[in-house]
């Protein structure tokens, strides 16, 4: 229902402080319970449930990644303001990385980081590359498997060192225009990347992410973010929902 603390306090004849304590307790509990779940499916399961079109075009692509930014209250400290300012959003933000399977199911959730961080930095500093190393060791992904990111993720070298492929939309660079192959590749990747954008939309449907997050919530915002991401896996698949960001 997305009710405010004031509304809940009125409905249950409790103080706002009590409502806040109850919510924090449940958020921390859900963070521990849901955080203990293994949300990264086995390689065979990912492939088994991927669409035929996806498998025909990218048979070894297992993860689609993207970041999303949450607007936060402007910190009073100049250094914190600078660290959290996002030139893309023209606002102070927290940045989180998500990884989804080809059907849009969330299989990786990072902690939140200051909005000034680049996409490349967020991949290396928030544990995604380390997760890939671990998955390679236990055989849950194999060398030659691919990752589909947005254009800002210049991590081809890092993935190459792990024996993985980077399937990214082509850049113009010094070209006058795209050739036919590049156009088809860009359209194909964009069509498959829509599922990570839909997954982000599902998370943003939680009311707390529709407004500026106050500094007073910084102590628990990572738990709220993680719980919201994991709960979205229990909702309808993005393939069955028509959503726009």
TrEMBL record:
PANTHER family: SI:CH211-262I1.5-RELATED (PTHR23080:SF133), THAP DOMAIN PROTEIN (PTHR23080). This is DDE Tnp4 domain-containing protein. The keyword Membrane applies. Keywords: Membrane, Metal-binding, Transmembrane, Transmembrane helix. It comes from Patella caerulea. Pfam families: DDE_Tnp_4 (PF13359). Residues 65-233 form the DDE Tnp4 domain. The chain crosses the membrane at residues 212-234. Its cofactor is a divalent metal cation. GO terms for molecular function: metal ion binding. The keyword S-adenosyl-L-methionine does not apply.
């Amino acid at each position: 229902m997305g009710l405010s603390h004031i509304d809940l306090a009125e409905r249950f004849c409790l103080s706002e402080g009590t409502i806040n304590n109850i919510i924090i307790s449940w958020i921390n509990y859900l963070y521990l319970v849901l955080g203990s779940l293994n949300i990264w499916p086995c390689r065979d399961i990912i492939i088994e449930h991927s669409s035929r079109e996806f498998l025909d075009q990218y048979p070894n692509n297992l993860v689609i990644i993207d970041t999303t930014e949450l607007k936060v209250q402007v910190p009073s400290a100049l250094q914190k303001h600078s660290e959290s300012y996002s030139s893309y959003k023209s606002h102070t933000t927290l940045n989180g990385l998500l990884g989804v399977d080809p059907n849009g199911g969330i299989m990786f959730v990072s902690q939140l980081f200051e909005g000034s961080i680049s996409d490349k930095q967020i991949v290396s500093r928030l544990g995604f590359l380390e997760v890939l190393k671990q998955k390679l060791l236990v055989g849950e992904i194999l060398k030659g498997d691919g990752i589909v990111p947005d254009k800002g993720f210049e991590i081809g070298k890092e993935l190459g060192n792990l024996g993985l492929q980077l399937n990214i939309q082509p850049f113009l660079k010094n070209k006058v225009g795209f050739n036919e192959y590049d156009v088809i590749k860009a359209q194909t990747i964009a069509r498959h990347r829509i599922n990570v954008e839909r997954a982000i939309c599902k998370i943003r449907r939680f009311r707390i992410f529709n407004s500026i997050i106050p500094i007073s919530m910084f102590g628990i915002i990572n738990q709220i973010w993680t719980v919201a991401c994991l709960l979205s896996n229990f909702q309808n698949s993005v393939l069955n929902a028509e959503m726009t960001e």
